[in-house]
Amino acid sequence: xxxxxxxxxxxxxxxxxxxxxxxxxxxxxxxxxxxxxxxxxxxxxxxxxxxxxxxxxxxxxxxxxxxxxxxxxxxxxxxxxxxxxxxxxxxxxxxxxxxxxxxxxxxxxxxxxxxxxxxxxxxxxxxxxxxxxxxxxxxxxxxxxxxxxxxxxxxxxxxxxxxxxxxxxxxxxxxxxxxxxxxxxxxxxxxxxxxxxxxxxxxxxxxxxxxxxxxxxxxxxxxxxxxxxxxxxxxxxxxxxxxxxx
Length: 246
Hints:
78% helix, globular, 246 residues, mainly alpha
């Protein structure tokens, strides 16, 4: 590992620590769902290591509890987690064109909302080792929280478990607010995203759509609108990236 990669890895671990704490708190509720589905603590731990996604995991545990087949569980998990396909496409634009495929594949293993947020916020091209540092602390926090949720989650008061879940939303706000304060376009898109998400979840017209489909539709629509109304000067962006690298 080069000195630059080591430094990026350490910075990723630093920025990933708050994410790990938030994951640890939120995954308690997943542990309870896993226990209700008949999974042991070790099985739930393995599930969280392999699938670092709250909605996808909860859907999987619910289907397991209902006795669904492997195929049904796989398809539903793919649908619920489909928004990460868009995030991966966006994140790939932050990488240098000559980034090896192995780095792209490893990063794709854990593209979560929060890790995506801190990665795209990095100036210039993204060093994959930054993402590795964040992943190195985020996954253990998520998996350990699920493990402990199976063991002692039902022993905790319901209000305490709900309070723990709120922490992740506060952490996510901490990721999006700083860039929104620097850029009015980003601030407007964040506000529009909140408003659109609220309306979509309240209007009967969209009641039959899953949360994953709603997220994909809103993300694609807002991204298209932003690209048309506020195009990025590619030449100017490349100059800025070069300045940040130097």
